[in-house]
Amino acid sequence: MMRREAVVTSSPESIFWSYFMGMCNAAPEKHLQYFYQMSDQRRVFFVFSVCLLLASSTLIVYWSRQGWHNHPISSGLQALVQPPHSNWASVASSINIEFRRIDKFASGAPGARVIVTDSWVLKVTTYHVYIAAQSDCHVTVTDSRQHQLSPDSVSPTQLLTLRVHSINPAVKPFDIRLNSTEYAELREKVHAPIRNSASVVIRQTISELFLETFQAHVDLNQPYLLPSGQDVEPCIGCMQVPANTKLVRLCHVDEADIEPECEQCFCRPMWCLSCLGRWFASRQDQQRPETWLSSRVPCPTCRAKFCILDVCVVH
């Protein structure tokens, strides 16, 4: 992300003079090696190029003074200095450490990348880096736009615009944009609640809608009474909540049904309802959502086939 080490590369001066000398050798009839023999247009262009080169070199020298203290990114980091950070280099080091972690949220094209770590919210564009501390900011969904065509999905794509405000007056607010399918992941990573403008409706994905329907149907099934002395372990899918489902063969299959009959699962409760619903949805034909509720999928542990009627909530 941010490096203070010097990178050996060609300077603008060397590139300019190499190009100029190459043109002098490649087109001697233009008399570029003699300033007084140039045409008026080429003379003006040459003077403008040299002035632009000197201005850019002066700007780079100014930025590099005091260990790049005057660089715009350094100035932005300086506004974020607060305990336990003592200077902008300490803030940059903290961002680098968290950026290397695999649990960060990252989205967007290379020219407008959105990155959320445990402590920072960043928007990296081609010419600027916007940074806000999670402890000082709040996020608001301000706009949504729906696009009918998407190369990644057959269904319409909804793009959300979120405004990041910081209580630090030195940090200017900035906008981030992402797909509505990534909104749930972003909401889990951002510590503060994300506010939603009254006029913005966030459209749920087919999988999210199915998960709500799946949970509602399972609540109507017969509950599973946990035997005495048996402990409930954490869900092996998310490891966040106790395993609260058990597959018990309860459905009745018609003889005319061409699908294989449901099988008895002998696994102990190992999955929570949310993870089991996501597994059920992931095994479906994504082009035919109308068949999801009536289909059968293998148990994620023992591969015994079951349907939605066989999912019981543990009591």
3D structure, described in words:
30% of the residues lie in helices and 19% in strands. The protein has 315 residues and is of the alpha+beta class. The strands form four sheets. Strands 1-2-3-4 form a four-stranded antiparallel beta sheet. Helix 3 crosses helix 4 (88-99) and helix 6 packs across helix 7 (273-282).
Outline the fold blueprint:
Layout: H1 12-26, H2 40-68, H3 72-78, H4 88-99, E1 105-107, E2 112-116, E3 120-125, E4 129-133, E5 137-147, E6 157-166, E7 174-179, H5 183-189, E8 194-196, H6 206-219, E9 245-247, H7 273-282, E10 297-298, E11 305-306, E12 311-313
Parallel strand pairs: 5-8
Antiparallel strand pairs: 1-2, 2-3, 3-4, 5-6, 6-7, 9-12, 10-11
Helix pairs in contact: 3-4, 6-7
Brief sketch in words of this structure:
Helix content is 30%, strand content 19%.
Which properties best describe this structure?
disordered N terminus; 30% helix; elongated; 315 residues; four-stranded antiparallel sheet; 12 strands; alpha+beta; four-stranded mixed sheet
Instruction: Output the structural class.
Output: alpha+beta
The main pleated sheet reads as: 4 strands, antiparallel
Spell out the helices and strands N to C: HHHHEEEEEEEHEHEHEEE
Strand coverage percent: 15-25%
Our count of helices gives: 7
Shape: elongated
